[in-house]
Write a structure and sequence with these properties.
single chain; alpha/beta; Glutaconate Coenzyme A-transferase; two-stranded antiparallel sheet
Length: about 260
């Protein structure tokens, strides 16, 4: 088995999470790679929505480098524009959505706006939601991609950009008027997380081989739910790595690899 990079591991795990006969709202980079890998392997009938306005293109011209790349429009079933595809999510036509952010809390709420208590004069101002706020509210299940660091997995957010389970109360999302069922998975290079059905708190599902559950807990700023049956993350096969490296992202735009001299 060749060495697997963190970005390859995240893309492969993202692919595993996706299901055949479903619709996924993808963003630039790793989400596109994950969805393409799923289409090539276990989910040939997976449909992709691109934020710039494309639904279910045939990617015969190669991997789109952004959601607005013209390759994402090739033979698309639907091509209308940004407002049109977000309308689809509001009508319930998106089973999964990949989102990201700077920080996440135990209930899957995400901040990509500020760090600091003063909104007008924050310690750090992040790029903002993009489309993630709407995806988190309207898509059925959200899949977050985050770096596993204590400064990112925090007990309390300074600002909620993309709604998760709010304060964890059973009817929080209903009272907030959002339609999707909420956070589904959080993917990092060292662990895969889900959410407890009763408490809605983040739960550890899988860890990388050789990594302990305590090591994962030490990288998180709140108490995780850690079941007794935490599994090892499945590693990509040689065939998976060849697909990722030589066909999907052959130029290494997103799956950059360090060359040893």
């Amino acid at each position: 088995m060749a060495e697997v990079t963190p970005m390859e591991m995240i893309a492969y795990t993202g692919s595993r999470v996706l299901q055949d006969e479903s619709i996924v709202f993808v963003g630039t980079g790793l989400p596109i790679i994950a969805a393409m890998h799923a289409q090539y392997t276990h989910a040939p009938n997976l449909l992709m929505i691109y934020e710039a306005g494309s639904l279910a293109p045939i990617l015969e011209m190669g991997m789109p480098l952004s959601v607005g790349d013209t390759r994402a429009a090739r033979k698309a079933t639907y091509l209308k524009g940004l407002c049109g595809v977000f309308e689809l999510t509001q009508r319930g036509y998106s089973d999964f959505a990949f989102i990201g952010g700077a920080q996440i809390d135990m209930y899957g709420n995400i901040c990509s706006t500020i760090q600091g208590e003063d909104y007008r004069q924050p310690q750090v101002r992040f790029p903002g939601s993009g489309g993630a706020g709407a995806m988190a509210a309207n898509c059925e299940k959200t899949i977050a991609i985050m770096a596993l660091e204590k400064r990112r997995f925090v007990k309390q957010l300074d600002f909620v950009t993309s709604i998760g389970y709010g304060d964890g109360s059973p009817d929080y999302r209903d009272k907030a008027g959002v339609m999707g069922s909420g956070p589904y998975r959080v993917i990092t290079n060292q662990a895969l997380f889900g959410f407890d059905e009763e408490t809605r708190r983040m739960k550890l599902l899988e860890v990388m081989p050789g990594v302990t559950t305590q090591e994962i807990q030490d990288l998180v700023g709140f108490e995780l739910i850690i079941p007794s049956d935490v599994k090892e993350m499945k590693l990509p096969t040689e065939e998976d790595l060849t697909l990722l490296r030589d066909k999907i992202d052959a130029e290494g735009y997103f799956l950059k690899r360090q060359v040893k001299k």
